[in-house]
Amino acid sequence: MSDAHTALINHFYQAFQRLDAEAMAACYTDDVMFSDPAFGELHGRDAGDMWRMLTTRAKDFSLTFDNVRSDERSGGAHWVATYLFSATGNTVVNDIQASFVFRDGKICEHHDSFDLWRWSRQALGTKGLLLGWTPIVKNAVRTQALRGLKAFQASR
Fold this sequence. Notes:
alpha+beta, Nuclear Transport Factor 2, Chain: A, 6 strands, 36% strand
């Protein structure tokens, strides 16, 4: 099963490289739990909709991934996304470690971890450099990310 899980992770990131959110979401169970520093915790359709929103809005996007590994229950990968952050026009290079839990041949948990302060310095410029490490900016980033997701879902 670990070979199938490794293939599933590869399929997920190859779909991401093509900005194919439907193929990405199809890798998830219906009750998937996703988490990252920007969005916090998302469940079920919200996780797929996050990818739909991000791939739809992606500008000057590229993605690389490596160190894909898995066993019978869990797996992981390293990936780097480079893109234009639309709110500021700044280029972001986000270096991310992903971990996965599998159930019935699909991803039931997906956790992305990255340095939010590093991200905010790139995305927000001076404000991110000076304040990106504070809970105020971290909470503002999450609030804005979730607001964007809800607006995206309402527009569909």
